[in-house]
Amino acid sequence: MAVEWRASAEIAAPIERVWDAMVDVERWPEWTPTVTEAAWIDPAPTAVGRRARLRQPKLGRAVWRVTEFEAPTTFVWVHRVPGMLTEGRHELEAGPDGLVTLRLTLTHTGAMAKVAGLLAGELTAGYVATEAESLKRRCEGA
Fold first, then answer.
1. DSSP state of 112
2. % the chain with pLDDT above 90
3. Cα distance between residue 23 and residue 38, in whole Å
4. Are 76 and 88 in contact (CB under 8 A)?
5. pLDDT exceeds 80 at position 142
6. What is the structure's pLDDT at 39?
7. Which residues have CB under 8 Å from 85's CB, separation 6+?
8. Domain of 61: which CATH number?
9. CB half-sphere exposure, 14, CA atoms < 13 A
10. Which CA distances in Å does 98 have to 74, 103, 135, 141?
11. Between vectors from CA 12 to CA 22 and to CA 94, what angle results, nearest 5°?
12. What's the gap between Cα 112 and its chain centre?
């Protein structure tokens, strides 16, 4: 069973600027209200296996582990709790018009995915959309 939320945005900024903001996890609380604390647990550089601790309003703290990292296009991490794996996928695609397409996907899988989706689906959908719009504002305003 999988439950998924998606959001996207077209960003008028160089892909490098969007990528740098997206992977600078410790600064996320500066530009999105969906993250109040963020810190890398493991030393740099960011690569597969690196972990970060995030605190989000109404969701508490979670440890995320990077599972894919391909600069400047793909950043994926996972958070595991009993009965559920959550994957956060961040993808960028540079277009010929100078716009960058941002695609965010959050997926719950496992025995508790449907329950989590029912309990926090509206909150999660709002967070994913807010993060896409917040990153757009951050990068276009820089």
1. T
2. 96
3. 12
4. yes
5. no
6. 97
7. 78, 79, 108, 109, 110
8. 3.30.530.20
9. 4
10. 18, 16, 17, 16
11. 70
12. 21
Cα torsion through 7, 28, 41, 106, rounded to 10: -10
Do β-strands 84-94 and 60-70 pair in parallel, antiparallel, or remain unpaired?
unpaired
- 48 in helix, strand or coil? coil
Give the residue numbers spanning the domain of 128: 2-141
Strand order in the sheet with 60-70: 2-11, 100-109, 84-94, 74-81, 60-70, 51-56, 37-40
If you ran DSSP here, which 8-state letter would residue 122 be given?
H
DSSP 14: -
φ, ψ at 47 (rounded to 5°): -160, 175
> Which of the 8 DSSP states describes residue 50?
-
End-to-end Cα distance, the chain: 40
pLDDT at residue 125 is higher than 80? yes
Q: What CA–CA distance (Å, rounded) separates 121 from 99?
A: 30
Q: How far is CA 34 from the centre of its chain?
A: 10
Geometric angle at alpha carbon 52, from 74 and 105, rounded to 5°:
40
Domain count, the chain: 1
